[in-house]
Amino acid sequence: MKQSSNVPAFLSKLWTLVEETHTNEFITWSQNGQSFLVLDEQRFAKEILPKYFKHNNMASFVRQLNMYGFRKVVHIDSGIVKQERDGPVEFQHPYFKQGQDDLLENIKRKVSSSKPEENKIRQEDLTKIISSAQKVQIKQETIESRLSELKSMRGKRPNSLWCQSTQSRILKEGIVKRCRKIKTKKRVLILAFDVLESRFQ
Fold first, then answer.
1. If you ran DSSP here, which 8-state letter would residue 92 be given?
2. CATH 1.10.10.10 at 9-110, yes or no
3. Triad 55, 3, 49: Cα angle to 5°
4. Spatial distance between the Cα atoms of 78 and 86, rounded to a whole number of angstroms
5. Strands 71-72, 80-81: pairing kind
6. A Gene Ontology CC term for this entry (predicted)?
7. Close Cβ partners of 140 (under 8 Å, ≥ 6 residues apart)
8. Tens of pLDDT, residue by residue, the chain (201 residues)
């Protein structure tokens, strides 16, 4: 990488870390080169951070990434956020891409210009979104539980109204549709939370 006075030291060190092959077991590019992965947070914090950043605090490293506009990549599967415990953590920035170190000059440190009143409003918005997401989750679990009960009734009484009644079929279809709507609403809430969280950081 060509050193530039316009590129902060943190970004230069980060680029070196991701690029160098001898650190690939700790940190490396994703397959498409549009993001990078920290493969083992504990070992990375203990063995790598002290050598490059003079501390071993993973939370501080993540805060630095956030200050420069990096975002943690969240994978959503069927409207539900997938959380990989003890797995790789992925970060992305539109100007941090494999083979394009010339873009690093475009990465700027965030400057907070919001007023305390604005922060309070944003915090209230985040609280509302979290509350709404929890209510949606409860509704989904209730509906799925009811659907499971109906399916079990079908197995116990094969000649019951479940098999013969049009009303039961309509009920089942209605429950499935509601589940789909709830999952869609969850995706919207997750995206809204993500946007507000980025503004609040």
1. E
2. yes
3. 15
4. 22
5. unpaired
6. nucleus
7. 179, 182, 183, 186
8. 555 568 999 999 999 999 999 999 999 999 999 999 999 999 999 999 999 998 899 999 999 999 999 999 887 654 444 555 567 899 999 999 999 999 999 999 887 655 665 555 566 676 777 777 777 778 777 777 777 777 676 655 555 544 555 555 666 676 667 667 666 666 666 666 665 555 545
